[in-house]
Structure formats: structure tokens, C-alpha cells
Automatic annotation (TrEMBL):
Origin species: Syntrophus gentianae
Domain of life: Bacteria
Keyword Cell membrane: no
Protein name, per record: MFS transporter, UMF1 family
Keywords: Membrane, Transmembrane, Transmembrane helix, Transport
Membrane topology qualifier: Multi-pass membrane protein
GO cellular component: endomembrane system
TM ranges: 9-31, 51-72, 79-97, 103-123, 144-163, 175-196, 231-255, 267-285, 297-315, 327-345, 365-387, 393-414
One Pfam family in the UniProt entry: ATG22
Boundaries of every Major facilitator superfamily (MFS) profile domain copy: 9-421
UniProt keyword Transport, yes or no: yes
Length: 421
């Protein structure tokens, strides 16, 4: 790998710590047990889902215009750095909320998440600048794989602090949890440094004297000439449906586990195992895509997620706690087997279907399709939780989304590697 490819991959190690500790594991538990203490389980789960939906909506509204601006020479890095520092700073501020500070906690989390996801728009767009079409599957898969493995380090340190606060001279698990949030922010910043130093915008549009007006014109032109990029937008439509299910499972799995009676230690252990197992499976998806083709591996991932949804739906009805725990472990292994591979191959496929000098604009659309999808899934779970008092009914709707995504994907000749028919 080149220095640029390695530096790009290391940023996945950096930002994956946020996803694991803040979005997936420790922060949701902190929110439900501390910030939202005294609030009913179904209500706090719904509020967590609505907060994720709000963060996704705000970013989705901004992403296409920001991406279009970022395609001008030198702008992609500026946008990346701005969102990176926003995310790091507000992750540090998550150390402030205490018991009952539900609104403050949600505000800080939403802002930190916007920083994380905004930086990712431009990080993804840099894929076309650091590698070739032929290597995109492999480099993208390595990003997810090393991200899963690397993010376990601050997560494990955070778990050790929470279980043994005295080791770091802390008085309580609450202080240790806040220390884990600070550690995550520091890890994110430090492993971003190679990306900041070594990755540069290779494909760009010439500078403009009126970049904002020019960006609006380019967006309008892209929509008028949408047939020219038909394959890219058809792929985005498929992605919109199936990534909804993937993101919903990622974001809501921990809160769902709390609702079915899983303990904090059980959930944190399961999440750690998912991160470790996801490392070889993401690399396996990258290798098999080169041998069998990208589309068959995408369909393999969708098939696994259909099984995940069906097991998750019936999980609360199982008769004993031990049986529920056993099947939750099965869910964990299935998620680990396909989560990174499906995301990595989606990113690299899209990178091959778009014009390179408009990568930030098109990855802005990639983001908006992904984020609007991420609004729908948590929103469905939130509404179902509020209406029925049970989280499981929102899960079943994801079957339809995976099936629709798969049907539309069938019409995209991904092996063509071209943005036009």
C-alpha cells in the first residue's frame, strides 16, 4: 500500500472509536442509566432513536451543497478538518452531563455525531484520491477492517476504567465513563494526524470566483443530467433502502439489548467480540469480491441481514433469559460477519461509478441517501416502541427495506465500472 492509502485507512481506526464507544456501546448505556434515569425504557429508547434521526436529518440537508463546494481545489480538506474538530470537541463535552441531564446529553451527542458524520462525507470522497478503481474494494475493506480492530483499544481501556475506576485514581464508574469519552476524543484526534498530513485532493475542479453560486448551478446541472449518471443514482436508490436496515441495527442494537434484559457487562462484551470478529470478515469480503464479484458479495451480506432481522423480531418472545442471551450472541456473530463487508463494498462500488473530479459532490449524495435512510429506520423503531411499548415491531419493517434494496441493486451492472451506460 502507498503512504496515502495507509493514512486514509488509519482515519477509519480513528473515527471508529467514536462509533463504538459513543454511538453503539458506552454512551447509549450511559444515556439510559444516567442521563435518562427515571424515564421509562420505551420512552428513553424512542428519544435515543429520535436524536439519531435528527442528527442524520441535519447533516443530510447540508451534505450535497457542502460536497459540491468541496470539489473546488483545496476545499475538500478544509471541510474535512472543520467537521473533524467539531466532532472531537463535542465528544469531549460529553463528559459534562450528569444524572437527569437528558436534554443536554442529547444536544451534545447530536452535535458530536454531526461532526463525525460530516467528516466522513469528505473522508469517503478522498477514496478516489488515494487509490485506483482496481484497488478500491480492497482499500475500502481494509478501512473498515482496521477500523473495527483499532477501535477496540480505547473501548477496552474504557471498559477497564468503568469496572475498576480506582486503577486510574477515579472515585466512581460515572467518572470512569466520562474518562472513557475523553479517551475516545483523544484517540480520534491522534489517529487522524496521518490523514491530515499525507492525504491530499488529487481530483478537483478549478477554483471559482463565486464558489457558492457555482455550487448551486452544478447541483442543478447534475439533477438535469441525471440520466448521464443513471447507474450511480440507481445504485444510490438501492443503497438507500438496504443501508437503512444496516444503520438501524448498528445504532439501536444496544438499546434493544437493554430492553430484553441484557446486563451492561454482557452487552459490552458482545460489542467487543463483534469488533474483533468483524476485522477478518471485512477483509474476507474484500478478497471474495475480487474472486467472485462485488455484487454477489453484496447479496450475501443482504441475505445475512434478513436472517438477523427475523431472529431479532422473535428474540423478546423466547422463554428464558439464557435462551435470549444465546440467540443474542448468534445475532452478534452474524452482524460481525457482514456489517463491515457490506458497507465497504457499497462505498467502493459507488466510488467506481462516479466522476472523480466531482467525488465530494457525489459522496454528498451518497451521504444524503444514507442519512435519510438512517432517519427512517430509527424513526420506525421509535414510533413502534411508543405505540406498542415494545421495540421489536419496528425491527420487522426492515425486511421490506432489504428486499427492495436487493431488487433495485439487481439492475446495476457493478462490474462495468463506469458512470455512464
Amino acid at each position: 500500500m502507498t503512504r496515502e492509502e495507509k493514512s486514509w485507512i488509519l482515519y477509519d481506526v480513528a473515527n471508529s472509536a467514536f462509533i463504538l464507544t459513543i454511538s453503539t456501546a458506552i454512551m447509549p448505556i450511559f444515556f439510559k442509566n444516567v442521563a435518562a434515569r427515571g424515564v421509562e425504557n420505551a420512552v428513553s429508547t424512542a428519544n435515543w432513536g429520535l436524536a439519531n434521526s435528527l442528527a442524520s436529518l441535519l447533516l443530510a440537508l447540508l451534505a450535497p451543497l457542502m460536497g459540491t463546494l468541496a470539489d473546488y481545489q483545496g476545499w475538500k480538506k478544509r471541510f474535512f478538518l472543520g467537521f473533524l474538530f467539531l466532532g472531537v470537541i463535542f465528544t469531549l463535552l460529553l463528559t459534562l452531563p450528569g444524572e437527569g441531564d437528558q436534554l443536554l446529553c442529547l444536544f451534545l451527542y447530536v452535535t458530536a455525531y454531526i461532526g463525525f458524520a460530516g467528516a466522513n462525507v469528505f473522508y469517503d470522497a478522498f477514496l478516489v484520491d488515494v487509490t485506483s478503481d482496481a484497488k478500491m474494494d480492497w482499500i475500502s475493506a481494509n478501512g473498515f477492517a482496521w477500523g473495527y480492530l483499532g477501535s477496540t483499544v480505547p473501548f477496552i481501556l474504557g471498559m477497564v476504567l468503568i469496572s475498576r475506576p480506582s486503577l486510574a485514581g477515579l472515585d466512581s464508574p460515572l467518572q470512569a465513563t466520562r474518562a472513557a469519552f475523553a479517551l475516545t476524543a483523544l484517540w480520534w484526534l491522534v489517529f487522524s494526524l496521518p490523514m491530515i498530513r499525507n492525504v491530499h485532493q488529487r481530483h478537483f475542479l478549478p477554483p471559482s470566483t463565486q464558489p457558492l453560486r457555482g455550487s448551486f448551478r452544478r447541483l442543478a446541472t447534475t439533477f438535469r443530467e441525471i440520466r448521464r449518471y443513471r447507474l450511480a443514482f440507481l445504485f444510490l436508490l438501492a443503497y438507500f433502502f438496504y443501508i437503512d436496515g444496516v444503520d438501524t441495527i448498528i445504532r439501536m442494537a444496544t438499546a434493544y439489548g437493554v430492553d430484553i434484559g441484557m446486563s451492561t457487562s454482557e452487552l459490552l462484551t458482545i460489542i467487543l467480540v463483534i469488533q474483533i470478529l468483524a476485522f477478518p470478515f471485512a477483509l474476507l469480503y474484500g478478497k471474495l469480491a475480487g474472486l467472485l464479484g462485488t455484487k454477489p458479495m453484496l447479496y450475501a451480506g443482504l441475505g445475512v441481514y434478513l436472517i438477523i432481522v427475523l431472529i431479532a423480531f422473535y428474540l423478546p418472545e423466547l422463554p428464558t433469559k439464557s435462551t435470549k442471551t444465546f440467540f443474542y450472541w448468534i445475532l452478534a456473530v452474524l452482524i460481525a460477519s457482514s456489517q463491515g463487508g457490506l458497507q465497504a463494498l457499497s462505498r467502493s462500488c459507488f466510488g467506481r461509478l462516479i466522476p472523480k473530479d466531482k467525488s465530494a459532490e457525489f459522496f454528498g449524495f451518497y451521504n444524503i441517501f444514507g442519512k435519510f435512510a438512517a432517519i427512517l429506520g430509527p424513526l420506525l423503531m421509535a414510533l413502534a416502541s411508543r405505540m406498542t411499548g415494545q421495540s421489536r415491531y419496528g425491527i420487522l419493517s426492515l425486511v421490506v427495506l432489504f428486499l427492495l434494496g436487493g431488487l433495485i441493486l439487481f439492475r446495476v451492472p457493478l462490474s462495468a465500472g463506469t458512470m455512464e451506460e
